[in-house]
Design brief:
Chain lengths: 238, 238
């Protein structure tokens, strides 16, 4: 018997046209689709992005993931959700989990897949890469992120200070995710490391709700939307 | 009159299924297609990846880019190639340039587009993001590159030493491109920074010629193919 497959599918940053052909095929061929959702409601952004590529008869289940940093609560949610996935893997041979962006980069998929593997060792795990919000934002700003011997760093806003200081005085470009609640501190760090003039901010990149901030410091006035990122550095083509 | 558009289209890492739907649409709608090629022959890898999505009647021109680090020769090639692009932009409204991976990350597109802008200021520049080889390699190895507050660094092998040393002792993951002629030195740096055990090497990721090295040090025996990269760190799902 063939091993049942759990496939993490990256649906990209928000624009449904930025799915890959492979992601679209895998969605079409899947037996069962899981999506992550807030515990507060049944809403899934990844499903909103990919919905048009999922055949209408395909069963879809929302897995609630709490927005918390409490490790115990998270582990409990991952285990409970992994149990639901394993239940389907015992029945269906192709189960997918949708994730925004890319499953290898800041996705819930890794946590879920490790728990599934633990509970059901014979599962085969696959990943379908997706365009990241950083790449979409670079395209939106006509910005070359890295050339020649330069580096590009994808970092969490929660660790922005350490990462930016390592590259102080260099041309390295950055994408900072999760700037959310720490926006004022991050703007201040950018000011201190003299990178504020190179910073561009965008919320909901690629979604109809997209906001481009003419001045990156504008994100520090109030808490920006969850899907807000900063690009620092790079060379604009305009 | 509408501004003529030069669009840099990322065709992804090598697997034709990893183009985005948007890239496929833009190729279908383009009036003229440019591809980069070696000066030694007319061969273009990006064209090989995307060929099936380009309508057969569409004109395609190869732009020779020398594989050199001689700045003067490079500037001359960019200018000459930009002149050819401008010639087409005077006639056609949608001109595309194909690039492997993503146009914002280590692509020839930035150099070309800046020269085109200089010679023909009214051009509108657009970029279509593409899956990078690093993302495809992570998917190939079932590897989560970054979670939580960790960072991910995309760096050139030519600057591997400085970048790896900045993150010594940390969990940060890396993709090192352009390991090519410096493979033995890079393996030695990974050994010194105690990251060799976390390193995975792959050549031609996603192409039929793909080579996965069971042991990353194998790339240091002889010069590996140009499209060789190292992933360092991350968490395997297997």
């Amino acid at each position: 018997m063939k091993r049942p497959v759990l496939c993490g599918v990256g649906v990209g940053p928000g624009d449904p046209e930025l799915l890959t052909l492979k992601a679209v095929r895998v969605l079409r061929e899947a037996d069962f689709v899981f999506v992550s959702a807030s515990t507060k409601n049944e809403y899934s952004l990844a499903l909103r992005v990919a919905a048009e590529y999922i055949p209408p008869e395909r069963p879809i289940e929302h897995l609630p993931f709490p927005m918390t940093r409490d490790r115990e609560k998270l582990e409990q949610a991952w285990e409970e959700n992994a149990r639901k996935v394993v239940e389907k893997l015992r029945v269906f041979s192709k189960v997918v989990f949708l994730t925004m962006g890319d499953p290898a980069l800041y996705s819930t998929f890794g946590y879920l897949a490790r728990w599934v593997r633990r509970l059901y060792p014979k599962v085969e795990i696959r990943m379908i890469p997706g365009i990241t919000a950083a790449q979409a934002a670079a395209a939106r700003f006509n910005l070359i992120l890295t050339e020649g011997e330069e580096a590009f760093v994808l970092a969490s806003g929660l660790a922005a200070e350490e990462v930016l200081k390592k590259f102080a005085g260099e041309k390295t470009s950055f994408a900072l995710y999760k700037v959310y609640r720490r926006a004022p501190e991050i703007i201040e760090i950018l000011r201190q490391t003299e990178r504020l003039k190179d910073a561009r901010a965008i919320s909901w990149c690629g979604f109809p709700e997209e906001i481009i901030y003419e001045d990156a410091t504008k994100i520090s006035g109030s808490t920006p939307p969850y899907f807000t990122l900063l690009l620092v550095g790079g060379k604009a083509l305009d």
